[in-house]
């Protein structure tokens, strides 16, 4: 049984780890992975058809805990303890919920102090006792309803009939319904760079690169840690040293040992094996990959990941908040021809294709990590447009955008492998696909 400390409006955890409001989904997953054998039977719940409208939930049924993430920002906005009997809870080191301590109204008031009168929900027969950033819910017998007119604080219960907490909610703000995830806490920065926004740089000849608005921890010499904002650019033709100087060391370097899209290359019939391998710089917290040419070691391809649940790469990257503007090819009833096509991580393919003229026949992309690892998420579809490749999920959302620059040293076709999916450790992939190894189940 987990023994956890409650910090209202902030966190739920112990000495070794804590779930902090505002932390990214991937950071919570990393905590769960570190507690294999202690936290078991984990479920990831999301909406496959409307991923931006329904919260992403990590459900811990054997521990009675539910982590609720905002579907757009993908940061933790609320923590629910839905079964108080499965976990020990304390506040300032003093237990208020355990097999020995029953979380009655008197115990809650003794532990947390006085607060406003409770609010009764007649439809659910629940009284809610609210503190700032923390709520407790008590089931109340319907026959006692008339005595609850002035709120929980005015109630008198028969001896031994004091209600017991059935659920607890931890959040930021005045109420659970209005809670929003706070900015990423400084304690979750972990000396990493994070992306605020990304702009695709284009001119008359095509894509030049991307401009990134970044943030990270400030100088360690400061008395108080603070957020520091940076602006950096990655331009096609930059050397790997240039990119590393601008963005720091990558999360991982991946060498392309195989290219399953090579058959679409004009030189696919050639059997001469290159002695060099193109390589990716993977920046997981920025949601981008940069591909370098093996011969010149210059950037020739950039991949922007949207990190939608239901995609094979989900949880490998943070969402890249990019903005891409293109000149339209078609006129629609509600948009004039001179109005640009604005594409972001939240755009849907049918809206984009209604104003552009991409390749009519997409390339079907089916990822698989190995012969023993099945892809439960199915195939995606890659549409080429000028020097851009849009990877589209079956639900019509964009999984990734690949920006490429034709290399004078290579005849690589536009649909050359733009994903570094196999570069990511099997532990993360198994988290969402292999229930036997990591106790994780995905539900749509």
TrEMBL record:
Q: Where is region (Disordered) located?
A: 425-444
Which InterPro entries does the UniProt record give? PHAF1, PHAF1/BROMI
| GO terms under biological process | Golgi to plasma membrane protein transport
The record's Gene Ontology cellular component field reads: trans-Golgi network
Q: Where is the composition biased (Polar residues)?
A: 428-444
Coiled-coil parts of chain = none
Q: Which domain of life is it from?
A: Eukaryota
Family per similarity comment:
Belongs to the PHAF1 family.
Under the heading PANTHER family, the entry gives:
PHAGOSOME ASSEMBLY FACTOR 1 (PTHR13465:SF2), UPF0183 PROTEIN (PTHR13465)
Q: What is this protein called?
A: Uncharacterized protein
In which organism is this protein found? Answer: Aedes aegypti
Lineage of the source organism?
Answer: Eukaryota, Metazoa, Ecdysozoa, Arthropoda, Hexapoda
